[in-house]
Amino acid sequence: MQLEKIAEIDVPYHQHKKLNLQLKTSILLDRKLIIGTRGSELALWQANFIKDSLAAINITAELKIIKTQGDRILNLSFDKLEGKGFFTKELEEELLAGTIDLAVHSHKDLPTENPPGLIIAAVSEREDPAELLLILKDCVDVHQKLSVKYGAIVGTSSNRRKAQLLAYRPDLEITDLRGNVPTRIGKLRDEKYDAIMLAKAGVSRLGIDLSEFHVEELTPAELIPAPAQGALAIQIREVDQELFESLQALHHADVAEELAVERTVLKLFGGGCHLPLGCYCRRDEGMFQVFTSKANEGDEFPDRLFIEAATTEGLAERVVAKFSKDRKFPGKVFISRELSDQSYFKKSMENRNIQIEARSLIRTVPVITKLDSYILRNIDWVFFSSKNAVEYFFQLNPQFPKKVKFGVMGSGSEEMLRRKGYFTDYVGEGTDTAEVAEEFAKLANGTIVLFPGAEGSMRSIQQGLSADTKIIDLPVYETVLEEEVEASGADVLVFTSPSNVEAYFADNLLDPYQKVVAIGKSTGKKFDEMGVKYTLPYSPDEVGLAEAVFGL
Questions:
Q1: Quick check: is 109 catalytic?
Q2: Of these residues, 71, 101, 109, 194, which one is catalytic?
Q3: Is the pLDDT of residue 7 over 70?
């Protein structure tokens, strides 16, 4: 009866076709739907997850396995494969042909534009988008950043991962790694690589036991993931309106809003899976934070950027504008610390031909030369707030009578602790010491914590611990300001401690054209007292400082 009524309406043929498709859709949910999926173990997990989610809203479905170009060609790296969508094109073709009703994709595999007639109807919750570096246990070197031995062979076919890994560890040899997740892990087990890199989301979904390897987890702020990494996309025909409405029960609009920023950045750069681009957007305390890493080639040092905004409107465009070829960078940057040739900050500035003036305005000297053994007798944790604290504490040759845990503030302190041969059990991220104290308190409350540090320390972490935590403050060094500090004519002044601020501005004023970056809130507080505007990086380390300079 309904078909007859539609036929009576005087409308063009193409509109008749659309109405008929909509009519077919009206009875679609009364039958078993067909879900198109790739055949890998992870793809099947993802498709079955959506199938079970549909069952929870009284929609039955079955799977149809479809082989894609990316599944058939395993001897080429991603950047050698032609075109885009080599893990999605065949699924989309069957969707358009009507042989399946919906396709389930890893969202990061999708091109930034849907083929005409297809839409993303729903986006899943986002699994943790962190990266995992799996290392053979006999290839672990705690003294090295990321814990993999010097010159190690690391497997990944992602130019994005390659560029960021080499920025941290230029000594690594990055080689192609293809195959599904279990296959890749098998190649590591067979010692074809010293380490491999995988997305945490896939490993978590498959519930794979990694206990045979040493696992380093890199947060999205450390190694920036691919746009939309960790989320699933449900793709349908645009005319299937009733199915679209039903799928809204599975849709996470908050995740979709964040992914839209990442995928718009990718689209504006005109890139696909081969582009060395990492972009990650998240909402934190009402602000949208965007981390971006971009290079032109996998073996090129990437530019990194961190910005935040109250809304996502125009946010992707702001990110891309910072990477414009026509953009003018500062000619010279001053930083209040000495830099080694391997310094991330130095390499980042040199990558943009920015002149660097690196000199510390303070001296540090030890305040004790011997450590009483009783101090270490019952401690459970040692917490370091700075690299200097690590350095001067271990100059005392501490002997721990029992196993202790280590906490640090920032990756700089973590790296220094590695050089001393110890892994960290907690790393405080960000510049807000109150937040770090709150996080650390969840682990350390009720224990005995030793805080080696500077004489006259602000004790920011200690103040966040509960009364049932025994705190032992151990001053191991003091800071001495240099006299008659010479002013810098750099365009950007980067200050790495409150003492360096005091030393510089004891004799100098800020020029009107100069911009200021402060490594953390305690350093920034000095500028608050002076009424000076400054930029605060996301993380209190050289990567964060480089991001801050790039974002000016």
A1: yes
A2: 109
A3: no
